[in-house]
């Protein structure tokens, strides 16, 4: 009833990343299937998902256990292993996948260097193959590659019962909300969920997940410093007028007043991660212009 990809890669800054993308004709699939650790690996448990696999599997990965041995260990101790599917990836080598003998057709999976793909009650084996090809043909940040694979599986027929939910989980050391990526990895005390998006009930969940990932980048990615525009001259005058029209007039010393007014508006609109004193992110500028009264 579910198809997923588990993989390792890098984020937009080149840091190691581990993640899972999953879709299903099942309510809120993201609440059950994915688990990821920023330095050890990731896994997906599905087809009568065994939620105990998530903490147990991550613990094994943190101990240095290879992906194939994690799969073997978890399933060997599970009396319902013939009903389960499991995909695991670790820091090195191929991913590993398990499809129980009693999973409903079509069910199966494939693995390669740094990924595992699996699904059950699918339109056919072409779903898994389409995901494999799309993942290997893609490049860039892991989150985008995972969504590309998930979209390919969906377009190849996906879950043969239909569509309902999808989710994307990516772990990167100290890259979660409020974390400072410059701080060394501090284990579980840090914020490591770089992307944690869920579409719980939607007629087109994979497309909606892709839209949410775009929004996630807007709200949570730090801007490239080279792209920032100085808030001086005509641009400063324009931004000051736009903010005033939205009820956030600058006051006091010109530069400081403009920064404060921009921060007030950006805080309300949730763009505060993109702020830089004396400069403005082009994406924030576009949103400011679009928000101005007509």
TrEMBL record:
Signal peptide interval: none
Residue ranges occupied by any Putative peptidoglycan binding domain in the UniProt entry: 219-286
InterPro entries with a match to the protein in the record: DUF1028, Ntn_hydrolases_N, PG-bd_2
Official protein name in the record: Putative peptidoglycan binding domain-containing protein
Protein source organism: Actinocatenispora comari
Organismal lineage: Bacteria, Bacillati, Actinomycetota, Actinomycetes, Micromonosporales
């Amino acid at each position: 009833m579910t198809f997923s990809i588990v993989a390792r890669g890098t984020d937009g800054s080149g840091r190691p990343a581990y993640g899972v993308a999953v879709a299903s004709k099942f309510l809120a699939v993201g609440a059950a299937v994915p688990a990821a650790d920023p330095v050890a690996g990731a896994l997906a448990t599905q087809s009568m998902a065994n939620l105990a696999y998530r903490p147990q599997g991550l613990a094994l990965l943190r101990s240095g256990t290879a992906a194939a041995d994690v799969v073997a260990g978890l399933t060997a101790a599970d009396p319902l292993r013939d009903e389960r599917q499991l995909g695991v990836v670790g820091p090195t080598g191929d991913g590993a996948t398990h499809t129980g003998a009693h999973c409903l057709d079509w069910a199966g999976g494939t693995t390669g260097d740094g990924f595992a793909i699996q699904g059950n009650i699918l339109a056919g084996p072409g779903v898994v193959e389409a995901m494999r090809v799309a993942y290997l043909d893609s490049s860039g940040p892991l989150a985008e590659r995972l969504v590309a694979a998930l979209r390919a599986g969906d377009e190849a027929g996906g879950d043969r019962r239909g569509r309902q939910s999808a989710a994307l989980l990516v772990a990167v050391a100290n890259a979660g909300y409020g974390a400072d990526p410059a701080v060394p990895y501090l284990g579980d005390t840090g914020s490591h969920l770089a992307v944690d998006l869920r579409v719980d009930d939607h007629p087109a969940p994979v497309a909606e997940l892709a839209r949410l990932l775009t929004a996630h980048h807007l709200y949570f990615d730090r801007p490239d410093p080279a792209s920032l525009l100085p808030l001086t001259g005509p641009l400063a005058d324009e931004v000051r007028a736009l903010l005033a029209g939205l009820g956030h007039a600058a006051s006091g010393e010109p530069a400081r007043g403009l920064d404060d007014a921009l921060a007030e508006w950006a805080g309300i609109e949730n763009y505060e991660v993109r702020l830089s004193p004396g400069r403005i992110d082009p994406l924030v500028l576009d949103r400011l212009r679009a928000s101005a009264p007509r």
